[in-house]
Every structure is written in structure tokens, then in C-alpha cells.
Amino acid sequence: MAKLKNEDIMKAVEEMSVLELSELVKALEEKFGVSAQAVAAAPAAAGGASDGGEEASEQTVFNVVIASAGAQKIAVIKAVRELVPTLGLAEAKGLVDSAPKEVLTAVNKKTADEAKEKLTAAGATVELK
């Protein structure tokens, strides 16, 4: 099998949709036993270690996850498209249909709360992780 060059891989990634990229990241995390969040969380953990236990109260990066779409699936799809404008209708529907699914990754507290409020108002069950 011919070895892929970095340029070939980057070109393939450029052509992927946001949903496809999200699925690729999850597959890589599972295959190699790593987490994209670990790098971002490591400095916070190192800083909070000396204080002993303040890490949980000082979380600054959140992932917004739709746990369940609820009965108002169309309203939830519209809310997802508002939050992630790069998603097409089919991609947003696929994301909502495959709940539990991550909608936003590594966002600040304010953005996560606003997203949760919009999705909850649309009828979805949302978790911040």
C-alpha cells in the first residue's frame, strides 16, 4: 500500500463536512486511546493541583451534548443549525437523529450556557461536559 503524504491527508480533511470531521476525531480517539480534550485540560489540571480539588469548580472548557432530541425534532434541528451555521440541513438532521451527540466542542462557559438554553428551549435534553 502506498504511503499517504501529509498533503493528501490535508486535502481529504478539507473536503470533509463538519459532521464527518467530528466522526473522524472520535474514531481516532477510540483507535489510539487518546482524547483531543486532554491537551486543553492538562494546563488547568496542573494549575489546580496545588490547590487540591478546585478543578471541578473551575472548569472553563465545555462540550455541549444533545442527550435526546425530544418531541420537537425540527425545532432542535433549527437550533443546531443556528449554533453551527456550517452544517447543512442533512448534516444537522443526522446529528440530531444520532443523539447523544456532541454539538459544540471546547467552548467557554458563556457559549455553552447559551447553546444549552437554545437547545433546551427547542425541546432537546442537553448536557454540558
Q: Would you write up a description of this structure?
A:
The chain is an alpha+beta fold and 129 residues long. The chain has a single domain (6-128), classed as Ribosomal Protein L30, Chain: A, CATH 3.30.1390. 55% of the residues lie in helices and 14% in strands. The chain has six helices and three strands, in the order H-H-H-E-H-H-E-H-E. It has helices at residues 6-14, 18-32, 36-48, 73-83, 89-97, 109-122; strands at 62-68, 101-107, 125-128. It has a three-stranded antiparallel β-sheet, covered by helices on one side. The N and C termini lie far apart (40 Å).
CATH architecture: 2-Layer Sandwich
Largest sheet: 3 strands, antiparallel
Classified by CATH, the class is Alpha Beta
- What share of residues is helical? 55-70%
Radius of gyration: 17 Å
What count of domains describes the coordinates? 1
Runs in which pLDDT lies below 50 for 5 or more consecutive residues are 38-55
Instruction: Give the oligomeric state of the chains in this entry, treating copies of one chain as homo and distinct chains as hetero.
Output: single chain
Count of individual beta strands: 3
Distance between the termini: 40 Å
Q: In what order do the strands lie side by side in the largest sheet?
A: 2-1-3
* Strand residues, percent: 5-15%
Number of helices: 6
CATH superfamily: Ribosomal protein L7/L12, C-terminal domain/Adaptor protein ClpS
- Categorize the overall geometry: globular
Global structural class: alpha+beta
- N-to-C order of helices and strands: HHHEHHEHE
The residue-averaged pLDDT reads 78
